[in-house]
């Protein structure tokens, strides 16, 4: 069987390496994004650069979107130049962005009217996970559509789970972002505590990561803490957006998030101080400021 033709919309920090992994797996990928250099990168990797969304999706069997937030998903999906008006009936649309669950539910309903099937499939693992094709992929939608998409997901990640109906993937991703933010905040507070106590920070983090305090977050972000290198793998701006999603969704279902609410405010504070473009491990800077350091 020939592999399905894929249109990829959104070639950012995550989208570029993910689309390239599909090329390595033998898929034909036609991409569209607003930045010419990202289209040039896709073409250099063996993909096809399209001049518009309509051009990218016209002959695709599968359309994958990876854009920053709900407004961008709506912008690329709807309208005369969008995916729903230009993709063929029967196309499978996989949105891998991190957006509100309701946006995913609404998109699935609108797409159904056009004969287009939808999965919401946000990911966790950051830039490193995208490059290494070891992402966790949490999916919402129909079982048959998930089964069809699974070989594509297997080229992108390692942990791939259908979590329930449309919107379920986004709900699980919101919970993921809650856990990650709280974990980074706890690690940042521990780093400041350890340094102010005069402990060898590298040694301390190594031993902590080998015990119950260890985590994927600490493994991935340990060097950021040690070197104060906050080059964005996942920007504070995006985590601020995600914390808004989870706090709003939790309020809608009556779930209390007392620690999450505090961390959401700390993320918002860091963004307000001009650090929104930094990696989310820069929560360390907020703890340092609160502890009297000039950052």
UniProtKB/TrEMBL annotation:
Report if keyword ATP-binding is assigned.
Answer: no
> Residue limits of the 3-hydroxyisobutyrate dehydrogenase-like NAD-binding domain?
167-286
Coiled coil regions, renumbered to chain: none
Q: Which residues form the 6-phosphogluconate dehydrogenase NADP-binding domain?
A: 5-164
| GO MF entries | 2-hydroxy-3-oxopropionate reductase activity
Keywords from the named record: NAD, Oxidoreductase
Pfam families with a match to the protein in the record: NAD_binding_11, NAD_binding_2
InterPro entries listed in its UniProt record? 6-PGluconate_DH-like_C_sf, 6PGD_dom2, 6PGDH_NADP-bd, HIBADH-like_NADP-bd, HIBADH-related, NAD(P)-bd_dom_sf, Tartro_sem_red
Which SUPFAM superfamilies does the record cross-reference, listed alphabetically?
A: 6-phosphogluconate dehydrogenase C-terminal domain-like, NAD(P)-binding Rossmann-fold domains
Q: Give the enzyme's main class according to its UniProt record, as a single word.
A: oxidoreductase
Q: TM segments? A: none
Q: Which NCBIfam families match?
A: tartro_sem_red (TIGR01505)
Q: Which family does it belong to?
A: Belongs to the HIBADH-related family.
Q: This chain belongs to which protein, by name?
A: 2-hydroxy-3-oxopropionate reductase
